Amino acid sequence: MIPVESYRGRRVALFGLGGSGLATAKALVAGGADVTVWDDSASAIEKARAAGLHAADLRELDWKGVAALVLSPGVPLTHPEPHWSVKLAHAFAVPVIGDVDLFFRERARRAPDALVICITGTNGKSTTTALVAHLLAEAGFDVEMGGNIGTPVLELEPPAADAPRRVHVLECSSYQIDLAPTISPTIGIHLNLSPDHIDRHGTFDRYAAVKERMIAAAQIAIVGIDDPASEAIALRHAKTGGRTVTLSVVAKHGASLHVTGRAIVNNQGDTLADLTGIGALRGAHNGQNAAAAVAACLQLSVPRAVIQKGLSTFPGLAHRMEQVGRVGRALAINDSKATNADSTEKALLAFEQGLFWICGGKPKAGGIADLAPLFPRVAKAYLIGEAAEAFSETLGDTVPHMIAGTLDVAVNQAVADANHSEFNEPVILLSPSCASFDQFPNFEVRGRTFRDLVSALPDFRPL
């Protein structure tokens, strides 16, 4: 835990008592703050009280003298409208901040030069965060990883002047950055931008501006420039004199690093790393993720040989193009995190042919129509959940398919078909392009169920 001593002896209101909210409240109390917590959920309030926290309705709080409202990232700050707790804070000119902001306040107080790497972007944040952490651990750093991935930031070990090899690697969502006015990473990584979370930010331009805040405050900015909005962010940072490293997976002119085939190359043509044969980093999107991680490690003087070794041992993330194992000749891939067509597109692009694709669930707007150019890569599709009928209409006569209904039926049929196919290495790919909520509580349970079904088959061999 990082006790938040920046608010010692001061009154703090906190709204939102999920995992990060509870961790934040405990860290504030441990640092000596007078904390009042609340949530819209009665069960969350009872859980907080059971943990020894002071819970009281913030609508009845005397806001005079409150130093800050600490808001959980999932609670609306601006759109579709500010949460009632935010409106109260604004009425009394109380700053509204989040746990990432508290982390940076503590870093400034304890060890302002401590290494912090923050990763953001519309897609690829989690994989890049995990990969940076893995590579730095291989290089002998004392790595603390968290934020929007895994451990809440204030549950990590604190930045410390007497731990110069400690580095915090933090995934930062736009919601967290929006609540972190003091964010100031040593290295800020921005991967890409595409329309997302518009309901929470109002417009794409505002969403992009929130992401840019982190890069503007970074000592070193590493920015993917394959989309126009991100390229503009990189250009603005460079014009301010900020140290800027640019990345491209399409060999864009002027990029500091680009991906050619499976090689990561600098603008002098030197190969910095090779991704050939690294199954956990298949696909162009993972080329960008790996290039960002390599760039960060090079900024910290990690030798290329150590980086290459770390890339080859990276296990990947659960439910994100996760290699579950082989069943007969077939390779089983768990990409349950692909809850929309944009994510599934990256999975389909990673394989040229021989895909036995399991998809469906609670449908998203647009369905899978945008994936039509990639349908020739699919040998057969197995449709599950609420989206099955609609997906069947989209696939039509273009892709052989069956309505399996449930995941167990889909897995058994896909395994049988794959192993009787003509392909040398057929791939059974769970990449649903849908939310999970029709049949599973979340994508993690869906992915674990797929993993369990596959690993229970008699010819299963783990990788």
First and last CA, distance: 35 Å
| Strand order in the largest sheet | 6-7-5-8-9-10-11-12-13
Helix content: 25-40%
Q: Which CATH class of the largest domain?
A: Alpha Beta
Short structural description:
The chain is α/β, with parallel strands linked by helices.
Report on the architecture of this protein.
There is one protein chain. Helices cover 34% and strands 22% of the residues. The mean pLDDT is 95. The protein has 3 domains: 5-97, Rossmann fold, CATH 3.40.50; 100-312, Mur-like, catalytic domain (UDP-N-acetylmuramoyl-L-alanine:D-glutamate ligase), CATH 3.40.1190.10; 322-461, Protein-Tyrosine Phosphatase, Chain A, CATH 3.90.190. Helix 8 runs parallel beside helix 9. By secondary structure, the protein is of the alpha/beta class. The two termini are 35 Å apart. The strands form 4 sheets. The chain has a 9-stranded mixed beta sheet with strand order 6-7-5-8-9-10-11-12-13, sandwiched between helices. Strands 19-18-16-20-15-14-22 form a 7-stranded mixed beta sheet, with helices on both faces.
